[in-house]
Write a structure and sequence with these properties.
Elements (H helix, E strand, L loop, with lengths): L3 H17 L14 E2 H10 L6 H10 L5 E3 L5 E4 L13 E2 L5 E6 L3 H7 L1 E2 L6 E3 L3 H9 L4 E6 L1 H6 L4 E3 L5 E3 L1 E2 L4 E3 L1
Antiparallel strand pairs: 1-3, 2-3, 4-9, 5-8, 6-11, 7-10, 8-12, 9-10
EC number: 2.7.1.-
InterPro entries: Ptrans_KptA/Tpt1 (IPR002745), RNA_2'-PTrans_C (IPR042081), RNA_2'-PTrans_KptA (IPR022928), RNA_2'-PTrans_N (IPR042080)
Organism: Mucilaginibacter limnophilus
């Protein structure tokens, strides 16, 4: 079928297309970030990559971060979060746990302590409820560092949190006063 290494490469390419640059392969996303599954496969293949429905199913179903989702009949697909393109994921505000975590590389710590967590080119800041995942995320950016976010207090103070389909907590920004480097 497909190796895990091949699936990872294809997953990264699908993230690139579905989250950031659908125009790279001539794909159109609807207002909620959905693409027609058959068109995605066709356009990926037309751009020198290899993808079929079985491989796409494997990637969607086995991706440890659950980055992608199908609609009920698998005719549409989208990335669950992390977009830099302007879409409406149809998220509803949710009450977060008392603390959430954000992993980063050590080179970003001073900036974060000064300005807080900013979404920058993405639609949201990503937070998680699992410190081990935050460490792993931070490790992708160098020596991992983890911030504990006082999410419960932020919620009390009027900040809106959203929970994506794959369990990632999303927010517009986290001021430095709600952060603790752990």
């Amino acid at each position: 079928m497909i190796t895990d290494k091949e699936a990872k490469v294809k997953s990264k390419f699908l993230s690139f297309v579905l989250r950031h640059h659908p125009e790279f392969i001539g794909l159109e996303l609807d207002a909620n970030g959905w693409a027609v599954t058959a068109q995605l496969i066709e356009k990926v293949n037309a751009n020198g990559h290899s993808l079929d429905a079985a491989v796409l199913d494997y990637i969607v179903n086995t991706n440890s971060k659950k980055r992608f989702a199908y609609n009920n009949d698998k005719t549409m697909i989208r990335a669950n979060q992390g977009h830099s393109v302007d879409i409406d994921l149809g998220l509803f505000a949710a009450v977060p746990p008392e603390y959430l975590y954000h992993g980063t590389g050590s080179n970003a710590v001073d900036s974060i302590l000064a300005t807080g967590l900013e979404k920058r080119e993405r639609q949201h800041v990503h937070l998680g409820s699992d410190i081990q995942i935050a460490i792993a995320v931070g490790g992708r950016h160098g020596k991992p560092k983890v911030f504990k976010v006082a999410a419960g207090q932020m919620h009390v103070d009027g900040y809106a949190f959203y929970l994506s389909e794959n369990g990632v907590w999303l927010i517009d920004n986290v001021p430095a006063t709600y952060l603790e480097l752990i």
